[in-house]
Structure to design on (328 residues):
C-alpha cells in the first residue's frame, strides 16, 4: 500500500487528442461544439465519482463516452487504415492494484475500452489482440458491431486526402495530419491527434487511467501504437495516472507513462517536473509530438502538450469544471 497522503477530493481529467489546432482557423461554432462535448462528458462521467464511486469506473465511463462521440478518433469516428478498415486500440489501468487490461487491433467491438476492462477483470492476461480479443470480449458481454459502425464521412475524406496527395506507401498520419477540404472540418485539422483518454482520483485516493484510439490515418494493417501499451500511452500506480496522445511510436520508445512514474519514484521529481521533461525535452529529441494528462496522489493535475493545442478538461465538482483547447 502507498505510504503517501491520500486525497479526499475526487477529480476527473479527460483529453480528446492534441495537435496543430490553429487558433486562427477555429470558428466559434466549432470551438463550442468541442467544448460542449468535453463539458458534457466530464459532467456525466464524474457523477458517480463525486458520490464515492471509484476512479476506475470514472475513467471507463469517460472514455466510453468519448468513444461514442464522432468528434474524436476512438470508437465511432475512428480513422481508417491503409486498406479502409478500422483497427482500434485501448487500455485501462487501476493504480490501486496495478491491474491492467488492453486490447489492440479490434474492429468489431463498439467500445474497446470496455473490452480492455474485461481483459483486466475477467482474464488472467493483460493484453489481447485481434480476433482473440474480440471473441473473448463478446463472450463476456461486450457489444459487437459491424466495422462500418466506426466509419464517418469525415475520416474517409482524410484517408482519401492522404492517399490522393501522393504520399508514399509508407506515409501515415496522426488523425488529422492532413488538411481536408471538408466544410465541417471542426478546427484547423492539420496535425490534430484525436486519441482520447481519462485519468482520475477517487475519494479513497485511488488513481486510474484509460486511453482509446483509432490510431493513425493510413496506418499499416497490423500497426499498434502506444495507446494500448501499458507503461507507454496508459499507466497508473499509487503515485500517478497518465494518458497520452501523440505520435505513438515516439511514446512507445520513451515508455512515457512509466517514465513519468519512475522519475517521481526514483528521482523524487514532481508530476509536473517529470511530465514537462518527457513532453518538452525528451519527445522533441526524437521528433515526438503530442501531449498527456496526468494526476498524482495528492490531486495535482498536469496537461502538457508540445503541439499547438490539445482538447482537454478537468472537473473538481459539479460547479468547478474547466475545458480548453489552446494554451489558455
Ligand atoms: N497515440 C496514437 C497512436 O499512435 C495516436 C493519437 O494520439 O492520435 O496510435
Amino acid at each position: 500500500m502507498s505510504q503517501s497522503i491520500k486525497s479526499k477530493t475526487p477529480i476527473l481529467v479527460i483529453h480528446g487528442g492534441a495537435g496543430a489546432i490553429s487558433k486562427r482557423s477555429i470558428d466559434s461554432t466549432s470551438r463550442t461544439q468541442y467544448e460542449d462535448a468535453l463539458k458534457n462528458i466530464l459532467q456525466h462521467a464524474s457523477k458517480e465519482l463525486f458520490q464515492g464511486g471509484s476512479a476506475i469506473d470514472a475513467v471507463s465511463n469517460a472514455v466510453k463516452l468519448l468513444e461514442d462521440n464522432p468528434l474524436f478518433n476512438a470508437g465511432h469516428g475512428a480513422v481508417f487504415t491503409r486498406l479502409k478498415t478500422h483497427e482500434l486500440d485501448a487500455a485501462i489501468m487501476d493504480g490501486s492494484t496495478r491491474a491492467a487490461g488492453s486490447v489492440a487491433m479490434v474492429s468489431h467491438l463498439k467500445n474497446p475500452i470496455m473490452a480492455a476492462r474485461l481483459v483486466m477483470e475477467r482474464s488472467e492476461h493483460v493484453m489481447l489482440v485481434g480476433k482473440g480479443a474480440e471473441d473473448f470480449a463478446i463472450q463476456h458481454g461486450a457489444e459487437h458491431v459491424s466495422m462500418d459502425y466506426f466509419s464517418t464521412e469525415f475520416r474517409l475524406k482524410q484517408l482519401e486526402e492522404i492517399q490522393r496527395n501522393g504520399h508514399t506507401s509508407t506515409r501515415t498520419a496522426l488523425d488529422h495530419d492532413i488538411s481536408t477540404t471538408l466544410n465541417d472540418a471542426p478546427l484547423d485539422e492539420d496535425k490534430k491527434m484525436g486519441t482520447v483518454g481519462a485519468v482520475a482520483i477517487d475519494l479513497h485516493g485511488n488513481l486510474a487511467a484509460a486511453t482509446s484510439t483509432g490510431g493513425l490515418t493510413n496506418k499499416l494493417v497490423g500497426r499498434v501504437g502506444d495507446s494500448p501499451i501499458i507503461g507507454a500511452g496508459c499507466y497508473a500506480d499509487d503515485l500517478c495516472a497518465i494518458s497520452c496522445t501523440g505520435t505513438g511510436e515516439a511514446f512507445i520508445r520513451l515508455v512515457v507513462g512509466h517514465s513519468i512514474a519512475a522519475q517521481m519514484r526514483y528521482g523524487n521529481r514532481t508530476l509536473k517536473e517529470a511530465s514537462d521533461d518527457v513532453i518538452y525535452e525528451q519527445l522533441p529529441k526524437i521528433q515526438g509530438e503530442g501531449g498527456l494528462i496526468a494526476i498524482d496522489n495528492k490531486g495535482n493535475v498536469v496537461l502538457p502538450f508540445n503541439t499547438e493545442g490539445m482538447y482537454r478538461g478537468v472537473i473538481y465538482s459539479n460547479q468547478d469544471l474547466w475545458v480548453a483547447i489552446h494554451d489558455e
